[in-house]
C-alpha cells in the first residue's frame, strides 16, 4: 500500500491499517468499519493529506480491543448508514468502546447530508458529523479541529436539523436568555475547554463554572456539552 498506510500483512496481529511513521506517545485516530475496501480507502485518502496524524483501522470494536492500543486512541470514527437511525446503528459500538476508554471522543462519517441525522449524531455525543458533501481537504481540517477539542458540523447543516416547535429557544432568544457570564462560559465550552481551564481564563472558581454549565445545559434543553457546542454555533459568528 501507499501513503504511509500498511495493512494486516505488514503488522502481525492487526486487523487494519496503521501509519508507518507513528511516533510513540502520539494520539491515534481509529476508524471502525467492517467493509475492508471502504475503511482502507478512507484511511489512505486521509493519511495522504495528513501523514503526520496516526491512524489505524479495524473492522469492529472487538478487533480494536484485541489488536489495537485502546489507551493510545484519542478519536474514534464510525461510518453511518443512510438507512435507520444513527442511534440504532452506533449506540452499541459507542457503548462497547467507552467500556474500554470511558472518555473516548468519536465522530461520524455520514452517508448523506442530513441535518436531522447531524443533530442526532450530536445528541449521541459525537464531536463531529463528517458529511459526503464536503471535500477531503475540509474533512482533514475538520478532524484536526475535533482532535483539538472542537466540534464540527458542515455549515449548510447548522441549525437545519434543530426543532423550532418549542423544544428549544432560537439564537436570538438565547442572547436574551443568557447572562454575559454564561455566554463567556458557553463560548469556552464550544472550544472544548474543561471546567478547570474555563475557571482560570475567566477568573472564577471551578464551582462557579459548574453552576454556569448546569444553567446553560438547562436553558438549552440539551443533555451534554457536545450538544451545547452544537446548539450555540449561531451565537458566536466570529468562529470561536
TrEMBL record:
<protein>
    <submittedName>
        <fullName>DNA-binding NarL/FixJ family response regulator</fullName>
    </submittedName>
</protein>
<dbReference type="InterPro" id="IPR000792">
    <property type="entry name" value="Tscrpt_reg_LuxR_C"/>
</dbReference>
<keyword id="KW-0805">Transcription regulation</keyword>
<feature type="domain" description="HTH luxR-type">
    <location>
        <begin position="171"/>
        <end position="236"/>
    </location>
</feature>
<keyword id="KW-0238">DNA-binding</keyword>
<keyword id="KW-0804">Transcription</keyword>
<dbReference type="InterPro" id="IPR016032">
    <property type="entry name" value="Sig_transdc_resp-reg_C-effctor"/>
</dbReference>
<dbReference type="Pfam" id="PF00196">
    <property type="entry name" value="GerE"/>
</dbReference>
<dbReference type="GO" id="GO:0006355">
    <property type="term" value="P:regulation of DNA-templated transcription"/>
</dbReference>
<feature type="region of interest" description="Disordered">
    <location>
        <begin position="1"/>
        <end position="26"/>
    </location>
</feature>
<dbReference type="GO" id="GO:0003677">
    <property type="term" value="F:DNA binding"/>
</dbReference>
Amino acid at each position: 500500500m501507499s501513503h504511509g498506510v500498511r495493512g494486516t500483512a505488514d503488522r502481525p496481529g492487526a486487523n487494519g491499517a496503521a501509519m508507518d511513521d507513528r511516533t510513540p506517545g502520539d494520539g491515534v485516530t481509529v476508524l471502525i468499519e467492517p467493509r475492508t475496501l471502504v475503511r482502507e480507502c478512507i484511511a489512505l485518502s486521509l493519511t495522504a493529506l495528513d501523514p503526520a496524524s496516526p491512524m489505524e483501522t479495524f473492522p469492529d470494536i472487538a478487533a480494536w480491543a484485541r489488536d489495537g492500543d485502546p489507551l493510545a486512541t484519542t478519536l474514534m470514527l464510525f461510518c453511518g448508514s443512510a438507512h435507520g437511525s444513527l442511534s440504532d446503528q452506533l449506540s452499541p459500538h459507542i457503548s462497547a468502546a467507552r467500556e474500554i476508554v470511558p472518555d473516548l471522543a468519536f465522530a461520524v462519517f455520514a452517508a448523506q447530508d442530513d441535518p436531522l441525522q447531524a443533530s442526532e449524531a450530536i445528541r449521541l455525543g459525537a464531536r463531529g458529523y463528517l458529511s459526503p458533501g464536503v471535500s477531503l481537504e475540509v474533512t482533514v481540517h475538520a478532524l484536526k479541529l475535533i482532535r483539538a477539542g472542537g466540534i464540527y458540523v458542515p455549515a449548510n447543516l447548522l441549525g437545519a436539523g434543530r426543532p423550532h416547535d418549542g423544544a428549544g429557544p432560537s439564537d436570538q432568544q438565547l442572547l436574551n436568555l443568557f447572562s454575559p457570564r454564561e455566554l463567556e462560559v458557553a463560548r469556552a465550552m464550544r472550544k472544548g475547554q474543561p471546567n478547570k481551564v474555563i475557571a482560570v481564563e475567566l477568573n472564577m472558581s471551578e464551582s462557579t463554572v459548574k453552576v454556569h454549565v448546569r444553567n446553560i445545559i438547562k436553558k438549552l434543553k440539551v443533555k451534554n456539552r457536545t450538544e451545547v457546542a452544537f446548539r450555540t454555533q449561531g451565537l458566536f459568528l466570529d468562529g470561536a
